[in-house]
Design a protein that fits this description.
Distance between the termini of chain A: 40 Å
Number of helices of chain B: 17
CATH superfamily of the largest domain in chain A: Glutaredoxin
Helix content of chain A: 40-55%
CATH architecture of the largest domain in chain A: 3-Layer(aba) Sandwich
Number of domains of chain A: 2
Largest interface: A-B, 65 and 76 residues
Largest sheet of chain B: 4 strands, parallel
Oligomer: heterodimer
CATH class of the largest domain in chain A: Alpha Beta
Helix content of chain B: 40-55%
Order of helices and strands of chain A: HHHHEHHEEEH
Bound molecules: flavin mononucleotide, iron/sulfur cluster, FE2/S2 (inorganic) cluster
Strand content of chain A: 5-15%
Structural class of chain B: alpha/beta
Strand order of the largest sheet of chain A: 2-1-3-4
Shape of chain B: globular
Chain lengths: 156, 439
């Protein structure tokens, strides 16, 4: 059996009843391995969890952090919920758009960076909050955007 | 009143993510104290403290523990709700990042009370750094033999606001789509895997060691009698010093906004305060002479919620505020109930027509009635969370909505602080060329 299969069994052992509770950690692991949840990734996960691929799809479609289509190697998530919005999040996301030459929701042509608007990231007192590969940057302003993009590995 | 650090005590002076430093300030003494008590005596002590749930509903934690069916042959579970996703809230993140051992200590004490050996901490997927800190602290405490026969598992979510609702959280923790369950049965009777389950917010559980340290009687003397203790208030929006402030319950709202948080930024005027996170009715400037506790806020028609104040200044268009708020709830609706799934979308469409000037007076009534048809007709409170704030904007700032209709567009004419604000529901993912998406 594959290493992925073994890793999923180790996760399952931490939960009661069997266990389907490993679904989210297993899908996350598959996504880390494949970059996104391709058909192959879903099928491997279903196999390891002893559930149907359809079950894995139904779960994966529910959660924003699980990707059923390819995303860039790096992700930039800009919070545009109310507290950040009141403090200028729109100017920040526009600065990222012009720095990267893409719209929110798109990936750079070289497949490196996906830019997204996201809902509240839980850092509202330090607006605008931007997560680069899930690491938070606080108090981001339009002027600090080029520095953030430049700091990304292989950034444009 | 100065800040009153109890939950966050010691975090400024010490690195409390380290077990040795937490122990040096008396950490984990509460576990020993609790384990010397019978579960019944411990629950009685917790009930005496009247620790009201910090996740929003304010139900007393000790009373919840007393409802657990401890005689059940099934395992008993303790689940900590660390899914914090309410717009405006960022307090649980600070607790996990700065005082993870206080949360773990609270878990061990609460587990003893309900005779549980299995604790799950469900942390929102986006909190990667806090997940690492908390997991590190769990490992360290386990290796030091503090757990006894209890096991603590930190479980990561994957991006879904609804998973903060307790029964949706349980579904998600069972590996499923996070859709709320009908109640009854309530979790203390049938929760995780149909076994008796206690669910509490991070700040609720992290306060438990404080009660053991002070004694319930002393604890109950802090704050106000109906809501003892402190709360960490998250203040965001247009204030000079946004951030988290731990204060005794019952502190005047005006003091928090104008003293601790430094008042309105950039010399602007206060326009609105949304006091409990974006899901509660907003207050006008002449309503803010209120004390920050569950009952005082309830008495003026709003909620304590997540103790998170979003402060809005006079540059903000209330229609745009309503629209951006409703787009969030529409995006996060789990889709199970028709009034919520369809109603939130309909509200967005009506608000868009008001903002772009194509709405009539009748549409204002329609917005009201679509909301009325969600309230009380849905399975969980998310539907209500979409409606409460919008109804408050529509009723308290009615002249602004009417002005949109009569002027045929936004009277701010592009100068609102929320002008053009983009929402995730406005964007569709674009697949890089050459790759096939599956759905
Ligand atoms: C849509 C929705 C989202 C919620 N999100 C959270 C949350 O992120 N964190 C939380 O502690 N409670 C949240 N709650 C409240 C929980 O359902 C539950 O009341 C709480 O976790 C109980 O803990 P407490 O008694 O310690 O407050 C949410 C409720 C609803 C309806
Ligand atoms: S009210 Fe909305 S979020 Fe809650 S169960 Fe119904 S559809 Fe889902
Ligand atoms: S609104 Fe941006 S982090 Fe909360």
């Amino acid at each position: 059996m594959s290493r992925f299969h073994d890793e999923v069994q180790a996760i399952r052992a931490r939960y009661p009843e069997g266990s389907r509770s490993a679904a989210l950690p297993a899908l996350r692991l598959a996504q880390e391995k494949h970059g996104w949840l391709s058909r192959q990734a879903i099928e491997e996960t279903a196999e390891a969890l002893d559930v149907t691929p359809a079950f894995c799809y139904s779960v994966a479609t529910f959660y924003d952090m699980l990707h059923l289509e390819p995303v860039g190697k790096h992700t930039i998530d800009v919070c545009t919920n109310l507290p950040c919005a009141l403090c200028g999040a729109q100017r920040v996301i526009e600065a990222f758009e012009s720095e990267l030459g893409i719209h929110a929701g798109e990936t750079t042509e070289d497949g490196e960076i996906t830019l997204r608007a996201v809902e509240c990231l839980g850092g509202c007192g330090y607006a605008t909050v931007v997560a680069v590969d899930d690491r938070y940057h606080h108090s981001v302003r339009a002027e600090t955007v080029p520095e953030i993009v430049g700091g990304i590995d292989g950034g444009t | 009143m100065a800040e009153h650090k109890v939950l966050l005590a010691g975090a400024d002076e010490h690195d409390l993510t380290q077990l040795a430093e937490y122990r040096a300030i008396g950490g984990y003494a509460g576990v020993a104290k609790a384990r010397a008590m019978t579960p019944d005596a411990l629950i009685a002590e917790l009930e005496k403290a009247v620790l009201r749930g910090r996740g929003g509903a304010g139900f007393p934690m000790g009373r919840k523990a007393s409802l657990i069916d401890r005689k059940s042959a099934k395992p008993k579970y303790l689940v900590v709700n660390a899914d914090e996703s309410e717009p405006g809230a960022f307090k649980d993140r600070e607790v996990m990042g700065k005082v993870p051992h206080r949360l773990i200590e609270g878990c061990l004490i609460a587990a003893h009370a309900i005779e549980s050996r299995d604790v799950f901490i469900y942390i929102r997927g986006e909190y990667l750094t806090e997940y690492e800190i908390l997991s590190g602290a769990v490992e360290e405490a386990r290796a030091a033999g503090i757990f006894g026969d209890v096991e603590i598992t930190v479980h990561r979510g994957a991006g879904a606001y609804i998973c903060g609702e307790e029964t949706a959280l349980l579904e998600s923790l069972e590996g499923k789509r996070g859709q709320p369950r009908p109640r009854p049965p309530f979790p203390p009777i049938q929760g995780l895997y149909y076994a008796p389950t206690q669910i509490n917010n991070v700040c609720t559980i992290a306060t438990v060691p404080v009660i053991l340290e002070m004694g319930a009687e002393e604890f109950a003397k802090t704050g106000v009698p109906s809501s003892p203790g402190t709360a960490i208030f998250s203040v965001s929006g247009n204030v000079a010093r946004p951030g988290n402030y731990e204060l005794e319950l019952g502190t005047p709202m005006r003091e928090l906004i104008f003293e601790h948080a430094g008042g309105i930024a950039d010399g602007r005027e206060l326009k609105a305060v949304i006091p409990g996170g974006s899901s509660v009715p907003a207050l006008t400037p002449d309503e803010i002479d209120v004390r920050l506790d569950y009952d005082s806020l309830g008495a003026i028609g709003t909620f304590f919620g997540a103790a998170s104040l979003i402060v809005v200044d006079d540059r903000c268009c209330m229609v745009q505020l309503a629209l951006r708020s409703t787009k969030f709830y529409m995006h996060e609706s789990c889709g199970k109930c028709t009034p919520c799934r369809v109603g939130t979308r309909w509200m967005v469409q009506i608000l868009e027509s008001i903002e772009n000037g194509t709405a009539t007076h009748a549409d204002l009534e329609l917005l009201d009635s679509v909301g009325d048809n969600i309230l009380g007709k849905v399975l969980c409170a998310l539907g209500e969370f979409a409606v409460y704030p919008v109804h408050s904007y529509l009723h308290k700032w009615r002249e602004e909505f009417v002005a949109h209709v009569e002027h045929g567009g936004c009277p701010f004419a592009g100068s609102s602080s929320l002008e053009g604000i983009f929402a995730p529901s406005d964007q569709h993912a674009h697949t890089p060329a050459g790759e096939e998406a599956l759905v």
